Amino acid sequence: MKRRYALLDVFTNTPLQGNQLAVVLDSEDLGDQQMQAIAKEFNLSETVFVLPPANPAHSAKLRIFTPFGELPFAGHPTVGTAVLLATERFGTDAPEQDAVVVLEEEIGLLRCGVVLKQGAAGFAEFDVPKLPAPSLPIGETDLIASCLGIDTTEIGFENHRPSTMSAGVHYAFVPVRDLAVLSTVKPNRALWKDAFGSPDHNAIYVYCRETQGADSSFQARMFINDTSVWEDAATGSAVAAFGGVIQAFDEPLDGTHQLTVEQGFFMNRPSHIDLEIDVENGQIRAQRIGGQAVLTGRGELFF
Fold first, then answer.
1. What span, in angstroms and rounded, lies between the C-alpha atoms of 195 and 240?
2. Total count of domains within the chain
3. Do the beta carbons of residue 178 and residue 210 sit within 8 Å?
4. Residues 152 and 200 in one domain
5. Same domain, yes or no, for 118 and 161?
6. Residues 49 and 162 in one domain
7. Using 50, 70 and 90 to split pLDDT, how confident is the model at 227?
8. Same structural domain for residues 140 and 198?
């Protein structure tokens, strides 16, 4: 059997930048082990398998796999697949096309607004299905610094300090002084457990306020203690959880706040992730993640 697949670069408008994604479009008769094997074959940070939705009013059901396991939710697979499915529906000839793509993921239902423009990268924005909340405790600052290969004095800026959050996927967040420090971070796997404790905190988001773009709010790097992907070029699920960090330390006023997070710059895969936060009575009431995606290839699997 032939199965169509597409390759996209996500959270970018330029091919060969952003985060790579594979989407297998004809997946309805694939089992778990087959999906896992295909994801390992692609060997990208995530591979999406598109299935018929449980509710016919929705666009599709998605299953998202890393080379070594399944995820309940991920940002760049959601953005990339939403852009792809809208392109499959409307083509690329229309000067401009707005679309709504409703995706069933393990975490729940994700409603995505998509904008397609002829000759330009597609854009998708989705409502984050779960608001950020504190996660499990992590180690002391000196242990974290040792693990990251930096000095204790280089951790933190303003009132930001190491913390943990989850908006469906657990992350440890480590603020560092500036881009110079961010560029030198080199985690030591042997010290990972002492620094970050729980195996749920395999993913570490290191960030600073200094950015390379004038319109950006933060720059970050995401490391995962996994043999498949050591550093990720763009991590939407981390930015969804990062909203909780921003709320805790920056205490944004009531209203809607729009921020852009840079990631992947030290991998030569620059990415830009849009985060929109609605704050009411000092608490986050809703969040949206958005970004661009470009189609870079299509093909077929012969099984």
1. 23
2. 2
3. yes
4. yes
5. no
6. no
7. low
8. yes
Please report, for the domain that includes residue 161, its CATH number: 3.10.310.10
Same domain, 34 and 67: yes
pTM over 0.85: yes
Cα gap 231→262, rounded to integer Å: 14
Same domain, 185 and 265: yes
pLDDT band at 201 (very low <50, low <70, confident <90, very high): low
Shared domain check, 113 and 152: no
167 and 225 in one domain?
Answer: yes
Measure CA of the first residue to CA of the last residue in the chain; give whole Å.
Answer: 5
Q: Which of 46, 105, 125, 154 is catalytic?
A: 46
Residues 6+ apart with CB under 8 A from 302: 1, 2
Per 3-state DSSP, what percentage of the chain is helix, strand, and coil (rounded to 5)? 25, 40, 35
Provide the mean pLDDT of the chain: 94
Q: Burial level of 38, CB count in 10 A (0-12/13-18/19+)?
A: buried
Burial class (CB in 10 A: 0-12, 13-18, 19+), 186: exposed
Residue 249 domain boundaries = 133-289
**Could you give the C-alpha distances from 199 to 33, 100, 241, 242, in angstroms and in order?**
23, 36, 17, 19
pLDDT tens string 113-171: 999 998 899 999 999 999 999 988 899 999 999 999 999 999 999 999 999 999 988 89
What gap in Å lies between CA 264 and CA 179, rounded to an integer?
13
Would you state the pLDDT for residue 200? Answer: 57
Q: Is 262 one of the catalytic residues?
A: no
- Four-CA torsion 115, 52, 5, 130, nearest 10 degrees: 60
Q: Which residues contact 223 (CB under 8 A, 6 or more apart)?
A: 185, 187, 203, 204, 206, 230, 231, 232
